[in-house]
Amino acid sequence: MPIELIILAWGCVLALVHVFAAGRAKTEQYGTGWNVGARDEVLPEPRPLVGRLTRAQANYFETFPIVAIAILIDAQAGLFDRWTAIGAMVWLGARIVYLPLYAAGVPVVRTIVFGISMAGLLMLLWPVLQQTF
Fold it and tell me: Is 96 helix (H, G, I), strand (E, B) or coil?
């Protein structure tokens, strides 16, 4: 199986990590009743960690579909090469590093790591974009 597809599967696992990390932090702040309830009540401001994990999750889900689609397009078009493999690995590695940086509130390095993940994403898109020129 191509490494890009394996990385896509691990990207799905990382998505679950985001969901459960943010959910666990929210449950710690708001309680189990909130977690299993309808969540209709107005809640107090989230603690900093809850807010950061929620924003990190939203950020991940803004870019993960683009990566998934890029990998699937490359797969369908037979465009996998060493650069798409490197791009996928760069993307996943940066996204793994990004979550604890965001959770810890590290400002500048987190943004640099996000930029690195975007470079990996662009490496995945590049073969398909070259086909249009």
Answer: helix
